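Input record (one chain):
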Amino acid sequence: MELKNNKRVIRSWAFFDWANSSYNLVITSTIFPAYYSIITRTAEHGDQVTFFGIPFVNTALSNYALAAAYLVVALLSPVLSAMADHKGNKKIYMQLFTWLGALSCCGLYFFKLETLEWGIICFALAAIGYGGAFVFYNSYLPEIATPDRQDAVSAKGFSYGYIGSVLIQLICFVFVLKPEWFGITDMSFPPRLSFLLVGIWWISFAQIPFRVLPKGSPNFNATEQRKISSGFVELHKVWKQIKGMKLMKRFLFAFFFYSMGVQTIMLVSASFGEKVLHLTTPSLIGVILVIQLVAIGGANAMSRLAQAYGNVKVLIAVVIIWIFMCISAYFVSTEFQFYILAAVVGLIMGGIQSLSRSTYAKYIPANTPDTASFFSFYDVAEKVAIVAGLASFAYIEELTGSMRNSAIALTSFFIIGLLLLLSLRKAEVKLFATPIQIK
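The corresponding structure, as predicted from the sequence alone:
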């Protein structure tokens, strides 16, 4: 079966985003952050919690846990990607991480205040499963789509993700908001049931891509066996190649810095709304649903804009908007203002992720066999950016006592990313006779 631009293969690939975005919406963005903040805020201790005997601000602890999880993914993915790429079995690793993430979400069903340690561990393991599986999911993009189709295919994946996550969110929404319809009297049961449903949804729909996607293209050379036993050697090999690719190298540095801001905002926005603006769970869910629905149009619109104006130009414009969003977050004080902010963030959130992924794929030389290793490097950069962004956000909150200060600090990451993108744009204009070649 021909893989490139095959509609069935692309559709099945996009369904992986449909499957695992349920985690991203329910666990990192809506119900879990609200539930976590509520059960960890007590009259006796306020927002202070104790994790294995160590005191933390509750939201700082969850952000540190996420940072640790993504650090694990960053350390593991080079090894696993190199092994998968050379042996041609990357789908197996994608399946293993998917099962880890889905089962960890199911484990959150048992999370209450008295089982805080268990809940945080499952929360972190779910993030490892999500992040680890995405390493291999992303690496399929250049295998299933030609460069002229990669923007659209990447946007299709994110669109499927937004639609799927909204559907499971609506199902959970019914249990959380109308527990009396089902005779539920334990108010902790609806959110815990939601975590269980996410795990089931995730692993169930993931079977679609697992049945259709190829296991991976083997690129094994017996003389290289000793070298590939260390994935970091493989990662270093990719870095040596990237150093000779002027445009890709500049893009990766820019991507690293603006990802520190983008990924952190995505992961902490619900906690910000609940803690700073005291939004109720229904309001938070409403805000995130607005973001998800608007993001579908945003991802596809940016794909079309990239075709018309070039990827780098569009990325520059979007990063400028992100800078204004961070500044606005510092001053937002009402639920309506938060909704407006969420709508704008939704427009640019999916688009910048989708466009970043497809831009990177286009910088990879044609007919490169070890795409998993190249995307491992991309994912390591993103995961390290998440670690740095979340850790700095949590530290600033603990240091100053306010999430607003953490939000305004994110502007520095976007400004650095913007300057690097402008540098990349100048390099493209200088390198090519026509202003933009990467579209």
